[in-house]
């Protein structure tokens, strides 16, 4: 039986990211102390990937205002990320770190490697400041993700993390009522 990645601690890694026009080392330690999103995609210079990365770029300012850093990851190199950033208007608007994972270490750590292709599935992971994975979503290659829905999930995760004993129901939005699980709610919802 496969053990869930939810509530597990991120595993060690060391990689290089293209960020703000330069190359920067990134390790699992960089994800600690703040909320983080690790956003895997199959490959640079493809089709669905730029729509997702562009959508994430459009929501990046909102995520930053929530104290969240985004790290996109593919098995391409950081050099390829730089070339793609320079050649595509959509990718050129990205301000979050683009991590190169040519060895597949990070991709395997999160369980999204397609071994026969050397590519990542579309995996999205929300990590709390303690380095624990709180949201894990994995899509097949043909199914793009929504950054707006990711924002809502992070808002719910942050709310639950700061409101002991409360949980967020389906489609919860900030400001809406939450639930306090108790025997009194059983059969009442």
From TrEMBL:
Homodimer; disulfide-linked, upon oxidation. 5 homodimers assemble to form a ring-like decamer. GO terms for cellular component: cytosol. InterPro entries: AhpC (IPR017559), AhpC/TSA (IPR000866), Peroxiredoxin (IPR050217), Peroxiredoxin_AhpC-typ (IPR024706), Peroxiredoxin_C (IPR019479), Thioredoxin-like_sf (IPR036249), Thioredoxin_domain (IPR013766). It catalyses: a hydroperoxide + NADH + H(+) = an alcohol + NAD(+) + H2O. Thiol-specific peroxidase that catalyzes the reduction of hydrogen peroxide and organic hydroperoxides to water and alcohols, respectively. Plays a role in cell protection against oxidative stress by detoxifying peroxides. Pfam families: 1-cysPrx_C, AhpC-TSA. GO terms for biological process: cell redox homeostasis; cellular response to stress; hydrogen peroxide catabolic process; response to oxidative stress. The keyword Ion transport does not apply. The keyword Disulfide bond applies. The gene is ahpC. Keywords: Antioxidant, Cytoplasm, Disulfide bond, Oxidoreductase, Peroxidase, Redox-active center. Residues 4-159 form the Thioredoxin domain. It comes from the Bacteria. It comes from Shewanella fidelis. The active site is at 49 (cysteine sulfenic acid (-soh) intermediate). It is found in: Cytoplasm. It is an enzyme of class 1 (oxidoreductase). Its EC number is 1.11.1.26. This is Alkyl hydroperoxide reductase C. One of its GO terms (molecular function) is thioredoxin peroxidase activity. Belongs to the peroxiredoxin family. AhpC/Prx1 subfamily. Its main location: cytoplasm.
């Amino acid at each position: 039986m496969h053990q869930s990645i939810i509530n597990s601690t991120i595993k060690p890694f060391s990689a290089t990211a293209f960020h703000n026009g330069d190359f920067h080392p990134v390790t699992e330690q960089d994800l600690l102390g703040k909320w983080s999103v690790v956003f895997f995609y199959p490959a640079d210079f493809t089709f669905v990937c730029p729509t997702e990365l562009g959508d994430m770029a459009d929501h990046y300012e909102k995520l930053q205002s929530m104290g969240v850093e985004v790290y996109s990851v593919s098995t391409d190199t950081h050099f390829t990320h730089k070339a793609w950033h320079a050649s595509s208007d959509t990718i050129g608007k990205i301000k979050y770190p683009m991590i190169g994972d040519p060895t597949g270490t990070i991709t395997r750590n999160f369980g999204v490697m397609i071994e026969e292709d050397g590519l990542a599935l579309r995996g999205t992971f929300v990590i709390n400041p303690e380095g624990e994975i709180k949201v894990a979503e994995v899509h097949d290659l043909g199914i793009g993700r929504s950054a707006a829905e990711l924002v809502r999930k992070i808002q719910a995760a942050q709310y639950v993390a700061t409101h002991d004993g409360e949980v967020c129901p389906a489609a919860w939005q900030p400001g809406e009522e939450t639930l306090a699980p108790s025997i009194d709610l059983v059969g009442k919802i």
